Amino acid sequence: MVYVCAVTLVAPVVAQHKDTVRNVIQQIWMSAFVTMSRKEKMMSRIVEKEGYKKPIVNCVIMDLDGCIADDRRRRIHIPDWPKYYADILNDSVFPEQLFLWHRIQREVPIFIFTGRPEYLHNDTKEWLRIHGLEYAKMFMRPDKSKDATWKLKSEWLSFIQSNGVSPSLVYEDDPSCCSMFAGAGLVVHQVLRSAQ
Fold this sequence. Notes:
By secondary structure, this protein is of the alpha/beta class. 39% of the residues lie in helices and 24% in strands.
């Protein structure tokens, strides 16, 4: 059975109900993963500097823009993508997702699937470092690719699965990508936000 969970996160409400939001996130976290043995946890952390080794028994796939990176000030430039991506180093982090990311990275590897083009790799890597966001591997759009983001992410998913990686959970905001992941049998948490 496939489940798609939509999480609506509105900044003013989050600010007023931090404890409630934190408790909800903790409940989502606890329900998302089955209890792993100590050996499995050790295996799940087997990652290399530029990638990963087999086997990884569990991992989480994370999107960046709109999920962890607050891109709302940049959205006015869509579909002028060079302008949209011009100031990513100054993005803030959604606090509730920062808490969630830090919680996840202590338990299982995080694989980043982002529609950002590869020429932004260094800036994106620096932004992640600044905010203490650890990850096992990052997949980015080839600079000349015109493919739909959901198609690219589908190819990346097939690639990591063929290399022994078993994703257990996905955080994504793009509806077409959410549908693709859900269709592939993964548990998907769709992140929905206000425009403000």
